[in-house]
Amino acid sequence: MPARELSQLGLYIYTVFLTAPLMWGHLVISYFFCQNPLLYQIGIASCLIHFFSPVLYYFFGSLSLALNITILAGFIHEFSWSILTGGFISVSPIWFAVLPMIAGLIGTKRELFLWFILSILATSYLFALHLNGVILQNYLSHSGEVLARVLIMIGFILLNSLFMFAYMVDRDRFYHAIVEKKEQIDTLLTLVGHDISNPLTVVNLSAKRLSKLLTSNEDPDIHKCLTRINSCTSGISNILTQIRDLQSIKQGKVELKFEKVYLNQVIEYLYRVFESKLHDKNISLKYDYSANEHIYFMGNSTALKYQIFGNLLSNAIKFSDIGQEIEISVEERSDGVQVHLIDRGVGIEEELLEVLFENNAIPSKIGTSGEKGTGFGMSIVKTFVELSHGTISVRSKTKDISPDNHGTQFSLLFKKSLFS
Q1: Torsion angles phi and psi, residue 203, rounded to 5
Q2: Given 55, 68, 76, 201, which residue has the most CB atoms within 10 angstroms?
Q3: SS3 content of the chain, % helix, strand, coil (to 5)
Protein backbone atom coordinates (compact mmCIF):
# COMPACT_ATOMS: atom_id res chain seq x y z
CA MET A 1 0.00 0.00 0.00
CA PRO A 2 1.40 3.45 -0.93
CA ALA A 3 2.58 5.55 2.02
CA ARG A 4 0.07 8.34 1.31
CA GLU A 5 -2.90 5.95 1.22
CA LEU A 6 -1.69 4.27 4.42
CA SER A 7 -1.46 7.69 6.09
CA GLN A 8 -4.97 8.61 4.94
CA LEU A 9 -6.34 5.26 6.15
CA GLY A 10 -4.75 5.77 9.57
CA LEU A 11 -6.19 9.27 9.82
CA TYR A 12 -9.60 7.92 8.77
CA ILE A 13 -9.57 5.24 11.51
CA TYR A 14 -8.53 7.82 14.12
CA THR A 15 -11.34 10.12 12.97
CA VAL A 16 -13.95 7.35 13.19
CA PHE A 17 -12.92 6.38 16.71
CA LEU A 18 -12.72 10.01 17.80
CA THR A 19 -16.11 11.04 16.40
CA ALA A 20 -17.87 7.84 17.51
CA PRO A 21 -17.98 8.83 21.23
CA LEU A 22 -19.35 12.24 20.21
CA MET A 23 -22.16 10.66 18.20
CA TRP A 24 -22.93 8.10 20.91
CA GLY A 25 -22.88 10.91 23.45
CA HIS A 26 -25.55 12.72 21.43
CA LEU A 27 -27.47 9.43 21.28
CA VAL A 28 -27.46 9.15 25.07
CA ILE A 29 -28.63 12.76 25.38
CA SER A 30 -31.47 12.15 22.91
CA TYR A 31 -32.55 9.04 24.88
CA PHE A 32 -32.70 10.75 28.28
CA PHE A 33 -33.42 14.40 27.46
CA CYS A 34 -35.50 14.43 24.24
CA GLN A 35 -39.29 14.18 24.17
CA ASN A 36 -39.41 12.89 20.58
CA PRO A 37 -38.27 9.23 20.21
CA LEU A 38 -37.57 9.79 16.49
CA LEU A 39 -34.33 11.59 17.32
CA TYR A 40 -33.09 8.57 19.28
CA GLN A 41 -34.19 6.12 16.56
CA ILE A 42 -32.42 8.02 13.79
CA GLY A 43 -29.44 8.48 16.08
CA ILE A 44 -28.93 4.80 16.84
CA ALA A 45 -29.11 3.90 13.14
CA SER A 46 -26.61 6.66 12.27
CA CYS A 47 -24.25 5.65 15.07
CA LEU A 48 -24.21 2.00 13.99
CA ILE A 49 -23.59 2.90 10.34
CA HIS A 50 -20.85 5.32 11.37
CA PHE A 51 -19.12 2.85 13.69
CA PHE A 52 -19.12 -0.06 11.23
CA SER A 53 -18.35 1.96 8.07
CA PRO A 54 -14.61 1.03 8.18
CA VAL A 55 -15.72 -2.55 7.42
CA LEU A 56 -16.60 -1.30 3.92
CA TYR A 57 -12.93 -0.62 3.30
CA TYR A 58 -12.09 -4.17 4.36
CA PHE A 59 -14.57 -5.70 1.90
CA PHE A 60 -14.34 -3.26 -1.02
CA GLY A 61 -10.86 -1.75 -0.59
CA SER A 62 -12.25 1.73 -1.23
CA LEU A 63 -11.33 4.44 1.24
CA SER A 64 -13.53 6.89 -0.66
CA LEU A 65 -16.62 4.67 -0.19
CA ALA A 66 -15.95 4.12 3.52
CA LEU A 67 -15.25 7.81 4.11
CA ASN A 68 -18.40 9.01 2.34
CA ILE A 69 -20.60 6.53 4.24
CA THR A 70 -19.03 7.66 7.52
CA ILE A 71 -19.65 11.33 6.75
CA LEU A 72 -23.16 10.55 5.47
CA ALA A 73 -24.01 8.90 8.80
CA GLY A 74 -22.80 12.01 10.62
CA PHE A 75 -24.71 14.26 8.19
CA ILE A 76 -28.01 12.43 8.79
CA HIS A 77 -27.39 12.41 12.53
CA GLU A 78 -26.75 16.15 12.71
CA PHE A 79 -29.53 17.10 10.28
CA SER A 80 -32.08 15.20 12.34
CA TRP A 81 -30.75 16.88 15.48
CA SER A 82 -31.09 20.29 13.84
CA ILE A 83 -34.67 19.63 12.69
CA LEU A 84 -35.83 18.27 16.06
CA THR A 85 -34.01 20.69 18.37
CA GLY A 86 -35.08 24.10 17.06
CA GLY A 87 -33.73 24.34 13.50
CA PHE A 88 -31.35 27.16 12.64
CA ILE A 89 -31.18 28.47 16.22
CA SER A 90 -30.25 25.02 17.52
CA VAL A 91 -26.71 24.25 18.67
CA SER A 92 -26.42 21.40 16.14
CA PRO A 93 -25.92 23.12 12.71
CA ILE A 94 -22.38 24.11 13.71
CA TRP A 95 -21.40 20.45 13.19
CA PHE A 96 -21.94 20.87 9.43
CA ALA A 97 -18.70 22.89 9.41
CA VAL A 98 -16.76 19.76 10.41
CA LEU A 99 -17.90 17.54 7.52
CA PRO A 100 -16.02 19.28 4.65
CA MET A 101 -12.93 19.50 6.86
CA ILE A 102 -12.95 15.72 7.45
CA ALA A 103 -13.59 15.09 3.74
CA GLY A 104 -10.75 17.39 2.67
CA LEU A 105 -8.15 16.08 5.10
CA ILE A 106 -8.79 12.40 4.45
CA GLY A 107 -10.33 12.29 0.99
CA THR A 108 -9.86 14.03 -2.33
CA LYS A 109 -10.97 17.38 -3.74
CA ARG A 110 -14.07 15.63 -5.03
CA GLU A 111 -15.12 14.57 -1.51
CA LEU A 112 -14.31 18.03 -0.17
CA PHE A 113 -16.48 19.69 -2.83
CA LEU A 114 -19.33 17.19 -2.34
CA TRP A 115 -19.62 17.71 1.42
CA PHE A 116 -19.05 21.43 1.13
CA ILE A 117 -22.08 21.67 -1.17
CA LEU A 118 -24.26 19.37 0.98
CA SER A 119 -23.32 21.21 4.18
CA ILE A 120 -24.07 24.58 2.58
CA LEU A 121 -27.42 23.29 1.27
CA ALA A 122 -28.42 21.90 4.68
CA THR A 123 -27.45 25.10 6.48
CA SER A 124 -29.17 27.25 3.84
CA TYR A 125 -32.35 25.16 4.14
CA LEU A 126 -32.47 25.68 7.90
CA PHE A 127 -31.74 29.39 7.47
CA ALA A 128 -34.49 29.74 4.83
CA LEU A 129 -37.02 28.12 7.18
CA HIS A 130 -35.96 30.54 9.91
CA LEU A 131 -36.29 33.57 7.61
CA ASN A 132 -39.76 32.49 6.50
CA GLY A 133 -40.98 32.26 10.08
CA VAL A 134 -41.16 28.46 10.20
CA ILE A 135 -40.64 27.59 13.85
CA LEU A 136 -39.26 24.11 14.41
CA GLN A 137 -40.07 22.72 17.82
CA ASN A 138 -37.21 22.03 20.19
CA TYR A 139 -37.83 18.62 21.80
CA LEU A 140 -34.65 18.82 23.83
CA SER A 141 -34.77 19.80 27.50
CA HIS A 142 -32.61 22.55 28.95
CA SER A 143 -30.25 20.01 30.53
CA GLY A 144 -29.98 18.25 27.17
CA GLU A 145 -29.03 21.53 25.46
CA VAL A 146 -26.30 22.18 28.03
CA LEU A 147 -24.86 18.70 27.58
CA ALA A 148 -25.04 19.06 23.77
CA ARG A 149 -23.06 22.32 23.98
CA VAL A 150 -20.44 20.62 26.14
CA LEU A 151 -20.09 17.85 23.54
CA ILE A 152 -19.73 20.45 20.77
CA MET A 153 -16.92 22.25 22.59
CA ILE A 154 -15.09 19.04 23.49
CA GLY A 155 -15.65 17.65 20.00
CA PHE A 156 -14.26 20.71 18.23
CA ILE A 157 -11.22 20.78 20.51
CA LEU A 158 -10.50 17.08 19.94
CA LEU A 159 -11.09 17.16 16.18
CA ASN A 160 -9.08 20.34 15.62
CA SER A 161 -6.25 18.95 17.72
CA LEU A 162 -6.26 15.67 15.77
CA PHE A 163 -6.31 17.36 12.39
CA MET A 164 -3.64 19.86 13.39
CA PHE A 165 -1.46 17.03 14.69
CA ALA A 166 -1.96 15.10 11.43
CA TYR A 167 -1.08 18.23 9.45
CA MET A 168 2.10 18.77 11.48
CA VAL A 169 3.17 15.14 11.04
CA ASP A 170 2.60 15.34 7.27
CA ARG A 171 4.34 18.70 7.07
CA ASP A 172 7.41 17.41 8.91
CA ARG A 173 7.50 14.22 6.85
CA PHE A 174 7.29 16.08 3.54
CA TYR A 175 9.85 18.64 4.71
CA HIS A 176 12.35 15.92 5.60
CA ALA A 177 11.61 14.13 2.32
CA ILE A 178 12.25 17.33 0.36
CA VAL A 179 15.48 18.03 2.24
CA GLU A 180 16.65 14.45 1.68
CA LYS A 181 15.77 14.60 -2.02
CA LYS A 182 17.56 17.94 -2.37
CA GLU A 183 20.68 16.51 -0.75
CA GLN A 184 20.56 13.52 -3.11
CA ILE A 185 20.21 15.80 -6.14
CA ASP A 186 23.05 18.05 -4.98
CA THR A 187 25.28 15.03 -4.41
CA LEU A 188 24.35 13.57 -7.79
CA LEU A 189 25.04 16.86 -9.59
CA THR A 190 28.40 17.20 -7.85
CA LEU A 191 29.42 13.65 -8.72
CA VAL A 192 28.17 13.90 -12.29
CA GLY A 193 29.88 17.25 -12.79
CA HIS A 194 33.16 15.91 -11.44
CA ASP A 195 33.01 12.56 -13.24
CA ILE A 196 32.11 14.13 -16.58
CA SER A 197 34.38 17.18 -16.49
CA ASN A 198 37.61 15.18 -16.10
CA PRO A 199 37.10 12.84 -19.09
CA LEU A 200 35.68 15.77 -21.04
CA THR A 201 38.89 17.74 -20.51
CA VAL A 202 40.90 14.77 -21.77
CA VAL A 203 38.71 14.44 -24.86
CA ASN A 204 38.93 18.18 -25.54
CA LEU A 205 42.72 18.30 -25.22
CA SER A 206 43.10 15.14 -27.29
CA ALA A 207 40.89 16.59 -30.02
CA LYS A 208 42.98 19.77 -30.11
CA ARG A 209 46.21 17.81 -30.29
CA LEU A 210 44.79 15.56 -32.99
CA SER A 211 43.75 18.65 -34.92
CA LYS A 212 47.34 19.97 -34.80
CA LEU A 213 48.75 16.62 -35.90
CA LEU A 214 46.39 16.51 -38.86
CA THR A 215 46.87 20.09 -40.06
CA SER A 216 48.48 18.83 -43.25
CA ASN A 217 45.68 16.35 -43.88
CA GLU A 218 43.15 17.78 -46.30
CA ASP A 219 40.54 15.06 -45.88
CA PRO A 220 37.26 17.00 -45.27
CA ASP A 221 35.69 14.08 -43.38
CA ILE A 222 38.45 14.15 -40.77
CA HIS A 223 38.09 17.88 -40.23
CA LYS A 224 34.31 17.50 -40.06
CA CYS A 225 34.65 14.83 -37.35
CA LEU A 226 37.06 16.99 -35.35
CA THR A 227 34.69 19.94 -35.64
CA ARG A 228 31.84 17.78 -34.34
CA ILE A 229 33.97 16.57 -31.42
CA ASN A 230 34.91 20.15 -30.48
CA SER A 231 31.30 21.26 -30.81
CA CYS A 232 29.99 18.43 -28.63
CA THR A 233 32.62 18.87 -25.92
CA SER A 234 31.98 22.61 -25.89
CA GLY A 235 28.23 22.00 -25.55
CA ILE A 236 28.67 19.53 -22.69
CA SER A 237 31.08 21.94 -20.98
CA ASN A 238 28.50 24.73 -21.22
CA ILE A 239 25.82 22.49 -19.73
CA LEU A 240 28.08 21.57 -16.80
CA THR A 241 28.92 25.24 -16.21
CA GLN A 242 25.27 26.25 -16.13
CA ILE A 243 24.36 23.33 -13.85
CA ARG A 244 27.11 24.44 -11.45
CA ASP A 245 25.84 28.02 -11.61
CA LEU A 246 22.29 26.95 -10.77
CA GLN A 247 23.53 24.69 -7.99
CA SER A 248 25.58 27.52 -6.47
CA ILE A 249 22.60 29.87 -6.62
CA LYS A 250 20.27 27.39 -4.93
CA GLN A 251 22.83 26.65 -2.21
CA GLY A 252 23.31 30.37 -1.55
CA LYS A 253 27.02 30.20 -2.38
CA VAL A 254 26.93 33.08 -4.86
CA GLU A 255 28.35 36.28 -3.39
CA LEU A 256 29.09 38.99 -5.94
CA LYS A 257 31.78 41.59 -5.32
CA PHE A 258 30.73 44.85 -6.92
CA GLU A 259 32.97 47.25 -8.78
CA LYS A 260 32.76 49.94 -11.44
CA VAL A 261 32.39 48.08 -14.74
CA TYR A 262 32.77 49.83 -18.09
CA LEU A 263 30.40 48.48 -20.71
CA ASN A 264 32.99 48.74 -23.50
CA GLN A 265 35.21 46.22 -21.70
CA VAL A 266 32.30 43.78 -21.40
CA ILE A 267 31.35 44.10 -25.08
CA GLU A 268 34.99 43.79 -26.24
CA TYR A 269 35.33 40.57 -24.28
CA LEU A 270 32.04 39.18 -25.62
CA TYR A 271 33.05 39.96 -29.18
CA ARG A 272 36.31 38.03 -28.79
CA VAL A 273 34.48 35.05 -27.28
CA PHE A 274 31.68 34.94 -29.85
CA GLU A 275 33.65 36.13 -32.88
CA SER A 276 33.79 32.69 -34.48
CA LYS A 277 30.06 32.07 -33.95
CA LEU A 278 29.21 35.48 -35.40
CA HIS A 279 31.48 34.75 -38.35
CA ASP A 280 29.98 31.28 -38.93
CA LYS A 281 26.49 32.77 -39.32
CA ASN A 282 27.69 36.01 -40.95
CA ILE A 283 26.00 38.01 -38.18
CA SER A 284 27.18 41.57 -37.52
CA LEU A 285 27.32 42.99 -34.00
CA LYS A 286 26.37 46.67 -33.97
CA TYR A 287 27.72 48.67 -31.03
CA ASP A 288 29.08 52.22 -30.78
CA TYR A 289 32.32 52.00 -28.76
CA SER A 290 33.21 55.69 -29.05
CA ALA A 291 29.78 56.95 -27.95
CA ASN A 292 29.76 54.61 -24.93
CA GLU A 293 33.40 55.07 -23.94
CA HIS A 294 32.55 56.53 -20.54
CA ILE A 295 29.48 54.38 -19.80
CA TYR A 296 29.82 52.39 -16.60
CA PHE A 297 27.66 50.90 -13.85
CA MET A 298 28.13 48.97 -10.65
CA GLY A 299 28.28 45.20 -11.01
CA ASN A 300 30.42 42.10 -11.02
CA SER A 301 32.56 41.84 -14.14
CA THR A 302 32.52 38.03 -14.26
CA ALA A 303 28.75 37.74 -13.82
CA LEU A 304 28.13 40.44 -16.43
CA LYS A 305 30.38 38.76 -19.00
CA TYR A 306 29.44 35.13 -18.49
CA GLN A 307 26.05 34.67 -16.81
CA ILE A 308 24.25 37.80 -18.05
CA PHE A 309 25.42 39.27 -21.36
CA GLY A 310 27.16 36.05 -22.39
CA ASN A 311 23.92 34.08 -22.14
CA LEU A 312 21.88 36.80 -23.86
CA LEU A 313 24.29 37.23 -26.77
CA SER A 314 24.65 33.47 -27.17
CA ASN A 315 20.86 33.14 -27.45
CA ALA A 316 20.66 36.08 -29.86
CA ILE A 317 23.18 34.39 -32.16
CA LYS A 318 21.53 31.01 -31.74
CA PHE A 319 18.09 32.22 -32.84
CA SER A 320 19.21 34.65 -35.56
CA ASP A 321 19.26 33.69 -39.22
CA ILE A 322 22.41 33.88 -41.31
CA GLY A 323 23.28 37.42 -42.35
CA GLN A 324 21.23 39.15 -39.63
CA GLU A 325 22.32 41.92 -37.26
CA ILE A 326 22.45 42.08 -33.47
CA GLU A 327 22.44 45.53 -31.92
CA ILE A 328 23.50 46.64 -28.45
CA SER A 329 22.35 50.15 -27.56
CA VAL A 330 22.72 52.18 -24.38
CA GLU A 331 20.49 54.70 -22.66
CA GLU A 332 21.65 56.76 -19.68
CA ARG A 333 18.84 57.44 -17.23
CA SER A 334 18.46 59.20 -13.92
CA ASP A 335 18.15 55.85 -12.13
CA GLY A 336 21.05 54.13 -13.91
CA VAL A 337 22.17 52.76 -17.26
CA GLN A 338 19.83 50.78 -19.49
CA VAL A 339 21.31 48.39 -22.03
CA HIS A 340 19.19 47.04 -24.89
CA LEU A 341 20.22 43.86 -26.70
CA ILE A 342 18.17 43.58 -29.90
CA ASP A 343 18.16 40.76 -32.43
CA ARG A 344 16.20 40.14 -35.62
CA GLY A 345 15.77 36.46 -34.87
CA VAL A 346 12.79 34.11 -34.86
CA GLY A 347 11.25 35.70 -31.75
CA ILE A 348 9.65 34.16 -28.66
CA GLU A 349 6.04 32.99 -28.50
CA GLU A 350 3.78 35.07 -26.26
CA GLU A 351 2.91 32.16 -23.94
CA LEU A 352 6.62 31.48 -23.37
CA LEU A 353 7.39 35.13 -22.62
CA GLU A 354 5.29 34.92 -19.44
CA VAL A 355 7.43 32.11 -17.99
CA LEU A 356 10.72 32.86 -19.75
CA PHE A 357 12.73 33.47 -16.59
CA GLU A 358 11.24 30.67 -14.48
CA ASN A 359 13.31 27.63 -13.55
CA ASN A 360 12.64 24.60 -15.76
CA ALA A 361 9.74 26.40 -17.48
CA ILE A 362 11.39 26.67 -20.91
CA PRO A 363 12.56 23.50 -22.64
CA SER A 364 15.77 23.70 -24.63
CA LYS A 365 15.11 24.75 -28.24
CA ILE A 366 17.19 24.18 -31.36
CA GLY A 367 18.74 27.27 -32.94
CA THR A 368 18.38 28.37 -36.56
CA SER A 369 21.52 26.41 -37.51
CA GLY A 370 20.85 23.42 -35.28
CA GLU A 371 22.55 24.82 -32.16
CA LYS A 372 21.63 23.06 -28.94
CA GLY A 373 21.09 24.54 -25.47
CA THR A 374 20.34 23.58 -21.87
CA GLY A 375 17.10 25.46 -21.20
CA PHE A 376 18.63 26.98 -18.04
CA GLY A 377 20.07 30.16 -19.57
CA MET A 378 17.26 32.63 -18.96
CA SER A 379 16.69 31.68 -15.32
CA ILE A 380 20.43 32.12 -14.74
CA VAL A 381 20.36 35.54 -16.42
CA LYS A 382 17.42 36.72 -14.29
CA THR A 383 19.00 35.46 -11.07
CA PHE A 384 22.34 37.19 -11.68
CA VAL A 385 20.68 40.42 -12.83
CA GLU A 386 18.77 40.52 -9.53
CA LEU A 387 21.94 39.69 -7.58
CA SER A 388 23.47 42.71 -9.35
CA HIS A 389 20.59 44.90 -8.09
CA GLY A 390 19.38 45.30 -11.66
CA THR A 391 16.19 44.59 -13.58
CA ILE A 392 15.49 42.84 -16.86
CA SER A 393 12.52 42.92 -19.22
CA VAL A 394 11.82 41.42 -22.62
CA ARG A 395 9.56 41.97 -25.57
CA SER A 396 9.42 39.93 -28.73
CA LYS A 397 7.61 39.35 -32.02
CA THR A 398 7.72 36.02 -33.83
CA LYS A 399 8.15 35.49 -37.54
CA ASP A 400 4.65 34.05 -37.79
CA ILE A 401 2.99 37.13 -36.30
CA SER A 402 5.28 39.80 -37.80
CA PRO A 403 7.19 38.49 -40.86
CA ASP A 404 8.80 41.87 -41.61
CA ASN A 405 9.55 43.08 -38.09
CA HIS A 406 10.37 40.12 -35.87
CA GLY A 407 12.97 39.60 -33.17
CA THR A 408 13.59 40.00 -29.46
CA GLN A 409 14.71 42.90 -27.29
CA PHE A 410 16.11 42.45 -23.79
CA SER A 411 16.35 45.61 -21.70
CA LEU A 412 18.61 45.57 -18.64
CA LEU A 413 18.84 48.38 -16.10
CA PHE A 414 21.88 48.65 -13.81
CA LYS A 415 22.66 51.23 -11.14
CA LYS A 416 25.61 53.62 -11.38
CA SER A 417 25.73 53.59 -7.60
CA LEU A 418 24.57 50.89 -5.19
CA PHE A 419 23.22 53.65 -2.94
CA SER A 420 21.00 55.26 -5.59
Answers
A1: -60, -45
A2: 68
A3: 65, 10, 25
